[in-house]
Each structure stands twice: as structure tokens, then as C-alpha cells.
Amino acid sequence: MHDGVNIGFSNGTTDLDGIIALQRANLETTVGPDEARREGYVTVVHTREALEAMHALCPSIVARAGDQVVGYALVMPVECRAFVPILEPMFEQLAGLEALRDKRYYVMGQVCIARSHRGRGLFDALYAAHRAWLADRWDLCVTDVAVRNQRSMRAHERVGFTRLATYTDATDTWALIAMPLGGGSERPGEPGRSP
After folding, report:
1. Which of 31, 71, 92, 110 could tie 63 with a disulfide, CB 3.0–4.6 Å?
2. Which pLDDT score, from 0 to 100, does residue 35 have?
3. What digits encode the pLDDT tens for the residues 155-180?
4. Distance between CA atoms of 158 and 156, rounded to whole angstroms?
5. How many CA atoms lie within 13 Å of 74's alpha carbon, on the beta-carbon side?
């Protein structure tokens, strides 16, 4: 429980509908440029089928107020690569990083907090749950964040993500970032260096 909100693994049924609804409400195209700049945004649209396939490999972590999903942090094992084709450029970049060689990692498929629950520490609490509950299976959580999404960049840095590389694809310029699991003592290597 965090500030009256329950944090736990997705139940794989109604939680998936809640994830989809929260995602749609926070897409960059939905919130508009001013709110996107102020509050952040999400860019990738997940289908229910993709979320179900991800859930089958490892449930994501959600924040619930009652039975409403008010936050989520999606677990996307590398085996999910084909489920969201728009992320292929990121997976290609990750595959070539020396810092990830011999590391067990999964991708943060997306993180989002409902407007009504922002500023209450849920972002940090979701990532703390990832560290607490997934460190026995993986060494690192990795993701990319649009460089222009400064709110998200600052929030990820605050919880312990560090930049591994930057790349540009057809949609944006992205920072590839990683957060060590298992207490945060292990840091991934810098670009071009072994960990």
C-alpha cells in the first residue's frame, strides 16, 4: 500500500483494460503539446493481445485505487520483441550495447501515472516494486525515453536510471537508459565500456 493505493502484479484481466484506458488517456496525441511538455506523455500503443502475451511471460506491476488502475509499469521481457513492432529500433540498439552483454535484462514496456495520482510518489513506488520483486530474475531494467520528454527523463534519473546511449529513429531521438535491480549497487557500464 502506498498513499492509499495498492501496488501489485497485474491480475491479467480487468487490469489490462485499465492499462489500456490509462494509456489512451495519456498518449502524446491525446494530451496535446502543452500538457505533454508539462506533464509528460506516452507514445506506444499496446494492443490487448500484446499485453496478454507480455502478461503470460511476466505480469506487469500496477497501482490500483480500489479496482481502478491509476498507474502501471509494464514488464516486457526480450521475448516480447515481436509483440510491439514500433519498438524494433530500440531492441536493435539494445542488442548492440556492450554494457548489456552477459546481463539479464527486460524492457520497461511503458510507465504511466493517472493525472489524479501524480505527485504522490507512485512513479518511484512502481519502480521500487520492480526492484523488490524482479531482481531474482533480472539484473537490469532498460528502456528508452524520448529526449524531449524532460519530465520523464528527470523522473527516470531520480529512481536510478543512467544513460547507456542515444539514438534517432523515424519517430524521435531516444535515450537508452538502464536501472540496476537488486538493491541498486550494480551500475551498467557507460557507452563503449564493459560493465
Report:
1. 71
2. 78
3. 999 999 999 999 998 889 999 999 99
4. 5
5. 30
SS3 13: coil
Question: What's the pLDDT at 188?
Answer: 37
Q: How many CB atoms lie under 10 A from the CB of residue 70?
A: 22
What is the separation of C-alpha 11 from the centre of its chain, rounded to a whole number of angstroms?
A: 18
d(CA 84, CA 108) in angstroms, rounded, equals 13
Read off the C-alpha cell for 47: 494492443
Q: Residue 34's pLDDT is what?
A: 82
Q: How far apart are CA 85 and CA 80, in angstroms?
A: 10
**Domains along the sequence of the chain with CATH:** 6-180 (3.40.630.30)
What single letter denotes the amino acid at residue 88? E
Q: Answer for the pair 16, 52: CB distance below 8 angstroms, yes or no.
A: yes
Dihedral in degrees, nearest 10, Cα atoms 171, 44, 90, 52: -160
> For 75-131, what is each residue's pLDDT tens digit?
999 999 988 888 889 999 999 999 999 999 999 999 999 999 999 999 999 999 999
